[in-house]
Design a protein that fits this description.
alpha+beta; GMP Synthetase, Chain A, domain 3; three-stranded mixed sheet
Length: 106
């Protein structure tokens, strides 16, 4: 990743947290863990963790419905030439890490 991609990814993660804080219903805790942006800066994937786990599907659907609202929020907060299209995904890395710890503790 280039320095520019790193900076934009970091900004996306920060602004996603602010947006989620403003828009979420507080029934679940949604935390942005990271963001990846394509080389052409046109597409970005935001990775989130959701607690409790039984609200994951519902919360992910909420985030996907709010993609265009987040794009508008992002556009108003940052001045860059190309505003990326956003997608949200569950960060499975954290779950895998917890599962490995569980297994190694036995």
């Amino acid at each position: 990743m280039t320095l520019r991609q790193d900076k934009i990814s970091s900004t996306i993660k920060k602004l996603a947290g602010e947006f989620i804080n403003l828009e979420s219903d507080r029934e679940s805790m949604i935390t942005p863990i990271g963001a990846n942006i394509s080389k052409d800066l046109k597409n970005a994937t935001i990775y989130v963790t959701i607690f409790p786990e039984n609200k994951e599907e519902e919360s992910l659907e909420f985030l996907k419905r709010k993609r265009s609202d987040f794009r508008e929020f992002f556009k108003n907060q940052i001045k860059i030439k190309t505003i990326p299209y956003f997608d949200f995904e569950i960060d499975t890395g954290e779950k895998n890490r917890q599962r490995i710890e569980e297994l190694s503790a036995k």
